[in-house]
Amino acid sequence: MSTDQEYRYIGKGISRLDGLEKVTGSAQFVHDMAFPGMLYGKTVKSPHACARIVSIDISEAEKMPGVCAVLVGRELPYKVGIYMIDKDILAKGVARYQGEPVVAVAARSELAAEEACAKVKIVWEELPAVLDPREGLALAAPLVHPELASYSYMKGVFQPQPGTNISHHQKIRKGDAEKAIDQAEIVWKTQFYNPPVQHVAMETHTCIAHALPGSQARIWTSAQSPFTVRNLFSACFGIPHQNIRVHVPYVGGGFGGKAGIHLEPLAYLLSHKAGGRPVKLTMTREEEFGTIPSRQGLYSQFTTGATRDGKIVSLIATYIWDAGAYADYGVNVGRAASYSGAGPYEVPNCRIDSLVVYTNKVFGTAYRGFGHLEVLWGIERNMDIGARQLGLDPVEFRRRNVLRPGAKTITGETISEHTGRVDLCLEKVAEEIGWSGIQTEEERAQARDSGKLRGKGVALLHKAPAMPVFTSSAALLKFNENGSVDLLTSITDYGQGTYTALAQCAAEELKMPIERIHVPWESDTALTPFDWQTVASRGAFMGCKAVMAAARDALQQIKETAAQILRAPVGELVCRDEAVFVAHRPEERLSYREVVMGYSYANGNSIGGPVIGRGHYIAQGLTHLDLETGQGLPALDWTYGAHGVEIEVDLETGEITVLNLATALDVGQVLNAQSLRGQIIGGVVQGLGSALLEEFRFSPQGRLLNAGFVDYKIPTSKDLPRKMSQHMILTEQLDGPYGARGAAEHPMISIPGAIGNALCDALGIDFFELPLNAERVWLGIQRQRSVLQNTLPRAIMLPQAIKLPQTVHLDRGGG
Amino acid sequence: MLHEIPLYTISVEVNERTYTEKVPAQMTLLQFLRERLCLTGAKEGCGVGECGACTVLLNGKAVDACLVLAVEADQASVRTVEGEARDGELTLLQRAFIEHGAVQCGFCTSGMLLSAQSLLEKNPHPDQEEIVEAISGNLCRCTGYVQILEAIEAVALGREEGG
Predict the structure, then answer these.
(1) Nearest residue of A to residue B99 by CA position?
(2) pLDDT value at residue B5
(3) CB–CB of A199 and B144 under 8 A?
(4) For A670-705, what is each residue's pLDDT tens digit?
(5) Residue A803 has pLDDT above 90, yes or no
């Protein structure tokens, strides 16, 4: 196993490379960019959740001063989408969510564009909307996409159900879950709800598109994945890839919300219609909430069976996703969450049905952790509820069921010594919060007089990257005249610290000072090498692997040239301290600078040439999941973790204060101690947002009521736990760079479960719905008082049952 | 101009340089800085004074530049993040932000720095609670604030040590 002493840079707390530009305000985001002749785009949006467009009158808008282009959907014969090509660029015929763009204007100023938008007249005919995915599954439900059968989609991976609102049905079948439930000694049932929430990157979505002669396009965009933008843009318009150039400079946060394609096609069409002037299209914060996709909501339902001594024998789970009006990443969220959908536990019999359901709401997309925060809210509360049924300590119940080497996951993958140790994560956080078991009712009663109750809880987590089997990264190491290096990658560093980690890796491998490695902070599909996407905690893993390969390639080139000059075999040359030398005669050396641009002998003869190291990495051994059983190998690497929390609840206000929050992750190896700590704290606090504060609220007509920071609160500096600690477990990932595995998304997963479990410990009340804001907790406390006084039945504590309608035939047994 | 909008002449000192410009009444100080002076360090995160990404110092006081009209800044002195480092020498806070890992995506950073700078100029030895309060109007979605608070605290303590 590797240790810190072996490395000069890996594992160290190297400060991020872009710090200087960011603290001086010189880092340029798309938000800050402008070009000569640039126009500004604005859109008119649907005020209805679902409505037919009877007529659109743009005649007055077109006459407004400064207006250069007005676009309506009917003139755009294009559809866009990543897994399911289901979305018009502007609504055509029907608008499917409130906030959906219907008309777009490009004008010489934002104000002129806004004023023109105000002059657009649209006649609407409201249609019945699907606002609850459970109702959307009913036989008689209106169809959000009646044309579903005609859409193209990624076949062999997704399973849309034409004639229904189901865009994907993911099945996991292991053993015989029903039979095992029938025979289980203890069976319990639970159900949970997660509301839709927003990513809230501080830089809203923005892009500049320039339609150039000869079907060429240039795009500058605040996006995570330049090549995905290019690929989907190409598919949408039929423009060949080489004609499309996508630039991604500094990006002000992403969290998955900028993973795919969003505003780029519309900005391009506006530019085209405006005669080829560049057009900038920027979302206001209100549009960021109401127009740009969010994290979709989830209803989850579990039936769990266990032996009397606390071994889980079966789990049947149903996940119903409130995916909103378009599939986007939502179908893949429903897929990825399924193969993690039993938690980090050994479950011998398992059946999961994950149904991604179209509704007439702002649609869902990727959000840090990709379905995992959502399903693990239920899974981890379900574990505590199960422990209570069994009369077991919740930590002990987990101990008896966690995945250990030799266990098989629900998709049939065998856990090895090197997969990661969730058991160690559990023990660490239990120790850190001083876990001593669930409080008794007597203990609670004693504390109740103080007006504040304390509780502790733990929750486990796991996640593997959700990515196609062919996911790849590439890197180029381009030497400069002075022997320094430009590291070229198309991974996007929107704050995670990936570029710093890649530079550390390059410096480590090339045996040179990190100060001499430069990472240009702009991806450019024409100049930087291909990378699939910056998502799923795979950037540092796969990026470092590509950089390591590129470094090997560069060193080989250096040695081949040096071997001629030093008259020694390549195999006897060694590189260290920016020099290449003969192993047993270190004084026979050449600095990199002397070799990397080619070498000239005294008489002028020259050899070698500019050194450019090329490296790539592709995920190894992944398989498609069987469509009927979900069996296969979906995971590049599993990162396991646990959170332990202690909270205090104010009985009068319902407010929760987090006193202590300990996180343990099995990261395999620390690449950069400072960035890792930043990722964990940042993720934990984002998880606290999901746990305690954040939810979209809709009117009965499906209008988003809290599209702004006044009514949608995210954590501020005042909302932090009193104490937070981070603990790394280092079980080497054999194929990971230096043994490391991904860790950027994981910190936010299972924060809600840990808080919910602690809340139950404090109050003796089960909460099933997020967020656990003061209002919900206070109402729970009032209901409990009523129950204690026998004025309300206990059943009122349960959320509305998930009723599965007749259209969904959840076949029994394994497939 | 697209419309016949009346313009007002303002004279504003920004980062110790005086600019005299004609501006429409509805132009915000943020638009003036970003669009007229091309000082894009201050960002617009919400445009309604809720996120603090546009924080600048107006006569030494931290304000949301999106809530101040350019005409209100007439005869005033404004400091933006671009004016903080002198001759390539970073301020103590800027250095601390880099060293403590207080920066991730960087979009909130300039506003954070100026809120913290304003605090430290008024109160060189703030306690933790005062630091938390000073940046509570600046939203950050990446860092979880801890490393930002640590950076500011390090500067506060450093000054204390330096006497």
Answers:
(1) A15
(2) 82
(3) no
(4) 999 999 999 999 999 999 999 999 999 999 999 999
(5) no
Taking the mean position of all CA atoms in its chain, how far away is CA B76?
Answer: 15
Residue A149 lies in a domain: no
Do A771 and A696 share a structural domain?
Answer: yes
Distance from the Cα of A683 to chain B's closest Cα (Å) equals 7
Residues A541 and A586 in one domain: yes
Query: Cα separation of A131 and A314, whole Å?
Result: 32
Alpha-carbon distance A755 to A758, whole Å?
Answer: 5
Does the pLDDT value for residue A229 go beyond 50? yes
Residue A795 has a pLDDT of: 42
State how far residue B75 is from chain A, nearest Cα, in angstroms: 24
Mean pLDDT of A293-306: 98
Residue A778 forms part of a structural domain: yes
Q: Are residues A575 and A490 part of one domain?
A: yes
Compare CB distances from B146 to A26, A250, A720 and report the shortest one's residue.
A720
pLDDT of amino acid A789 = 77
Report pLDDT for A445.
87
Q: What is the CATH number of the domain that holds A52?
A: 3.90.1170.50
For the beta carbon of residue A565, count every other beta carbon within 10 angstroms. 16
pLDDT digit string, tens, across residues B18-42? 999 999 999 999 999 999 999 999 9
Q: In a mutagenesis test of the A interface, which of B114, B142, B150, B155 is the best target, namely the one with the most A β-carbons within 10 Å?
A: B142
User: Looking at the partner chain, which of B84, B105, B146 has a beta carbon nearest the beta carbon of A681?
Assistant: B146
**Residues of A in Cβ contact (< 8 Å) with B98:** 15-16, 19-20, 23
A-chain CB neighbours of B81 within 8 Å are 23-25
| Cα–Cα nearest to A664, from A459, A813, A466 | A459
Residue A646 lies in a domain: yes
Tell me: cis bond preceding A771? Omega within 30 of 0 counts: yes
Q: Mark out the alpha helices in A295-453 (DSSP H runs).
A: 330-339, 372-390, 394-399, 422-432, 441-448
CATH of the domain at A673: 3.30.365.10
Q: Which among B81, B132, B141 is the nearest to A714, CB-wise?
A: B141
Asked if residue A629 and residue A544 are part of one domain, the reply reads: no
What's the pLDDT score for residue A734? 96
Predicted pLDDT of residue A791? 59
CATH class of this structure's domain B92-162: mainly alpha
A362, A485: one domain: no
Quote the tokens at residue A542.
Answer: 């796969």
Complete edge-to-edge strand list for the sheet that includes strand A573-576: A573-576, A579-582, A585-591
Q: Identify the band that residue A808 occupies on the pLDDT scale cut at 50, 70 and 90.
A: very low
A67 and A112 share a domain? yes
Cβ contacts of B47 on chain A, cutoff 8 Å: 284-285
Four-point Cα dihedral A688, B128, B141, A679, nearest 10: -80
Model ipTM?
Answer: 0.97
Q: Are residues A670 and A739 in the same domain?
A: yes
The residue behind tokens 């399903």 is: A375
Q: Which domain holds residue A8?
A: 4-26+471-618
- pLDDT band at residue A810 using 50, 70 and 90 as cut-offs: very low
pLDDT exceeds 90 at position A799: no
The structural domains of chain B, with segments of one domain joined by +, span 7-83, 92-162
> For the domain bounded by B7-83, which CATH number is listed?
3.10.20.30
Tell me the per-residue pLDDT of A175-228, one tens digit each, with 9 for 90 and over: 999 999 999 999 999 999 999 999 999 999 999 999 999 999 999 999 999 999
**Chain B: closest CA distance from residue A713 (Å):** 10
Nearest CA in chain B to A717: B136
Q: Which of B46, B103, B113 sits opposite A16 (nearest CB)?
A: B103
- Residues of chain B contacting A716 with CB distance shorter than 8 Å: 136-137, 139, 145
Shared domain for A733 and A659, answered yes or no, is yes
* Burial (0-12, 13-18, 19+ Cβ within 10 Å), B52: buried
Residue B4, pLDDT > 90, answer no
